[in-house]
Amino acid sequence: MPSVAAAESSYVYCDNGLRCFKAPCPSNSALDLANGKIIKGVSIDTSELPRADRERPYLSDMLHYGSVVVRGRIESRPEALTSDEYVQKVIVAGAIERETMMKERQHCSSRGLY
């Protein structure tokens, strides 16, 4: 059962360019606009977006490149990996607020983050 780890906030989610061979993998990150913190190794769940937002052309690309600000909450979801279990941080997006500004996308590059 997922547990809520944070109140609703605005996030810039993106692929940061890192690749790995074993989970958990920090391939994605998100900037929490409320406090400026970068959340590493987070995934996104778009199932709660309004239908119009879910059906936007290129939604996957917009998320991948950090082109939009999403409003949502973070949940901790346990996942089984081979014989181990880990807790996956997931942004449950409820709305797309707006396009991002360049400074909000700076965390999307893997240089200097890890």
Q: What would a concise description of this structure say?
A:
This protein is mainly beta and 114 residues long.
General description of the model:
There is one protein chain. With 114 residues, the chain is mainly beta. Strands 1, 2, 3, 4, 5, 6 and 7 form a 7-stranded mixed sheet that branches. A hairpin with a 2-residue loop joins strand 6 and strand 7. The chain is globular and about 40 Å long. The protein starts with a strand and ends in a 15-residue tail after the last strand.
Query: Rg from C-alpha positions?
Result: 14 Å
Give the averaged pLDDT, no decimals. Answer: 81
Which overall shape is indicated by the principal axes computed on the Cα atoms? globular
How do the helices and strands follow one another from N- to C-terminus?
A: EEEEEHHEE
* SS class: mainly beta
Quaternary state of the chains: single chain
Unreliable stretches: none
Largest sheet: 7 strands, mixed
Strand content: 35-45%
Number of helices: 2
Instruction: Specify the helix fraction band.
Output: under 10%
Say how many strands there are.
7
Ends apart, CA distance between termini: 30 Å
Descriptive labels:
114 residues; mainly beta; 7-stranded mixed β-sheet; 2 helices; 7 strands; 45% strand
List the helices and strands and how they pair.
Elements: E1 3-4, E2 9-15, E3 28-32, E4 38-40, E5 42-45, H1 51-54, H2 59-64, E6 68-81, E7 84-99
Parallel strand pairs: 5-7
Antiparallel strand pairs: 1-6, 2-3, 2-6, 3-4, 6-7
